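Quick one: co-fold with flavin mononucleotide.
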Amino acid sequence: MSKVLLGPTTLVLPTPAFLIGSSVDGKPNFMAAAWSGVVNSDPPMISVAIRPGRHTHRGISQNSAFSVNVPSVDLTRETDYCGIRSGAKVDKVAVCKFKIFYGKLATAPLIEQCPLNLECRVVQTLELGSHTLFIGQVEETHLSEDCLTDGKPDIDKIRPLIYTQAPFRRYFAFGEVAGQAFRAGLELEGKT
Ligand SMILES: Cc1cc2nc3c(=O)[nH]c(=O)nc-3n(C[C@H](O)[C@H](O)[C@H](O)COP(=O)(O)O)c2cc1C
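Sure, here it is.
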């Protein structure tokens, strides 16, 4: 098999498309973020990499708090809008008609229309170059009741949005199930 060299890139596919919430000068604001993910399980932590120029960067720095809101595919337009307009210029909450609520952290606004919301308290900040990495400890997780099946989160009901970075620059919904994790590999040992 032949490969072409693309040089050092950040090309990992896919990435999430989250809506990062913060309170900037006392006002709720949301930004689309693809460079975000789980970094620790105990205690639960999530990181998000944000360029210093963003209004969101200002909000997180002011309060040491942010929220991770997982949009469903129904919120594709709103998510994209929050990624192409800055809260420094427009009121994204008003344009997107987001209904805001708060949990444990008074400065981590949450979006009711997103099926899944996590409240995070910043525990570490790393200046990496182009981006600042904020590591947040998850203080609470909120899941819409109608996304439960038998009392457990149901991915088919959450329907999270996925993003594929340049050169694709497209949003996707989950496709077909490829296998059962922590079990599919056992087939290689003849076990099922
Ligand atoms: C799908 C998508 C993902 C993005 N991911 C990030 C990211 O991870 N980090 C970042 O700094 N900007 C990211 N951006 C750009 C910001 O969302 C964008 O600059 C936004 O306008 C910033 O809003 P704010 O100024 O209100 O914080 C992304 C944009 C899109 C459309």
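If it helps, The domain at 15-189 is CATH 2.30.110.10 (Pnp Oxidase; Chain A).
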